[in-house]
Amino acid sequence: MNYRHAFHAGNFADLVKHGALLHLLARLTRGTGPLTVIDTHAGAGLYDLAGPEALRSGEAAAGVARLMAAADAPVAFAPLKAAVAGLNGAGAIRRYPGSPWLIAQALRPADRYLACELRPEEHRALAQTLKGRKGVEALCADGYKVALDRLPAKGPALVLIDPPFERADDYSRIVETVKGARRRNREAVAMVWLPLKDLETFDAFLRDLEDAGAGALLVGETRMRPLSDPMKMNGCALVFANPPADLQPLVDDLCGWTAQALGEKGAGRAWRLGVG
Predict the structure, then answer these.
(1) Homologous superfamily of the 5-273 domain (CATH)
(2) Residue 220 pLDDT > 90
């Protein structure tokens, strides 16, 4: 599969992922020590919703456009809605912020951000998006490897893992990266995004994380439709290793509203797994 996020920017999965990411960053930047964020699959960082890719897929119209117009969206979406509104002003929603843009905006002067993207054209766009920002590096590199090589041994840290799942070994490399990050720095938090196609694949991934000693996990499921056709992307999931204690109700609200308001007989929830 040749994945290009420009087709999917601002879709339901982005709403859940970015809504949760902003709350996580807010908690990790409350402390006094500098935060290190490593983004293994950063993408371009900023997306044109008036471009041919977004218009062709219609996913932003069915996602962020509906969120911004919704009167019943939970308060958990307020930071993301504010970020989107701030980027677009009072007019139509023409631009959508990817994780790099949101992370760079949230960081303090002493914090560090390593944004990794292997595709040359995406990396060029990423470097432009992050140009001139202090403490930020846009790397054309294997993000899994960077996470293990450059994660500090102590201090607050976040490893964001959001691959396109083009490779057969993505699931195993995620497990290896979370395991390695948690061994290297016990303060590190890992946030993983993955598609929900069938329950067997998802359950196997969670078992592998547990067996790898990832510790306490917070799982957020957004099932946009029943998991009856494994050939379709039926939803998405977020998995947090070593999450802040108060994150669960926010993730529950994000997943629940998105599945019910934007899905087809959808359901969402957040729940805990394992022990610290």
Answers:
(1) Vaccinia Virus protein VP39 (3.40.50.150)
(2) yes
Report the Cα 74 to chain-centroid distance in Å: 19
Helix (H) or strand (E) holding 160: strand 157-161
Q: What one-character DSSP code corresponds to residue 97?
A: E
| 31 Cβ contact partners less than 8 Å away, ≥ 6 residues apart | 156
Residue 46's alpha-carbon distances to 2, 102, 127, 201, in angstroms, are: 19, 9, 11, 31
3 pLDDT tier (thresholds 50, 70, 90): low
At 71, list the tokens. Answer: 């009167």
**Cα(46)–Cα(84) distance, rounded to whole angstroms?**
11
Using DSSP's 3-state secondary structure scheme, residue 230 falls into coil
Domain ranges (residues) in the chain:
5-273
Q: β-pairing, 95-97 with 46-48?
A: antiparallel
Pairwise CA distance, residues 97 & 161, whole Å: 17
Q: Give percent of the chain above pLDDT 90.
A: 84
